[in-house]
């Protein structure tokens, strides 16, 4: 790496959403690498059925939990009042809504993956009631219903909403999960696209969602990262990375050779009591909590962030640093780290200043197997400093 490249790598680039910094560093892949979506699979494995529903039918399915709006999915709620109202106005004007995409599981449960914000908005308006349902605001054409809630609309307008037809493409449960994920990545283009963890959240079962939520809701995690209910679910992804490497190790990563399929497999494991029982989940969570406590103890405000020797500012969280240091620090007792923390910090900062290969491994093409193995090996060695 040349000096300008080194300086660029040392200065982290932060992710933004709705013009707000996410305090998480952008992960980049090399332009010359083929996108992971091109990983081969048999086109005959794709099974998609197109179905038509009335909005009343869709809302009933949401209420009886046969159509699931992924819980804890905060980004579905970020639309402003005018955006929500204009969606309802479009329905009242009988403008067809874009197609929805649902994932069906073996029990017949449907999960919304594409169209979550639209269905959440309509459900809030129609079924929210007087206290939680919102009033229409900022309408462009139907000024005479401005300020009204659903219950206050004339009966013909209510019927128009309830009887409106929507088209949904339903991915059959026999479609392999990795194929299903790729389908949703391909069609995920409207509005602000979902990121990988948001798609996994929508496609996963309640058990893995609960586990990841519990892992990221502790004081120890907040003290180490400053994150709480991250709007883009970066906190859940980082907890999932820890669980994935805890469960499958580097050998498991080599088998998948890319981060997305590795994390999909970890999600499926966490969803299965037969594969990962409650006792093992408790051990994962205990080790994760220990790692967060130790990271704060050793690195303070710079935990999981690039911190070269000549840098004093606080960079955003770096996910490769998070996965490697959290796994490394989970193995040590607090008393041991108190004695050695200055040596560990010095070694970690030296790596981020002088070892250009290590800096590359936490900056670009971070899913490359060789870079993953290199950063784990060097981090484990740094964690031994001062012994």
TrEMBL record:
Q: Which InterPro entries match?
A: GmrSD_N
Species annotation: Streptomyces macrosporus
The cross-references to Pfam families, in alphabetical order and at most eight, read: GmrSD_N
* Name under which the protein is recorded: DUF262 domain-containing protein
Q: Where is the GmrSD restriction endonucleases N-terminal domain?
A: 62-201
Q: Could you name the domain of life of the organism this protein comes from?
A: Bacteria
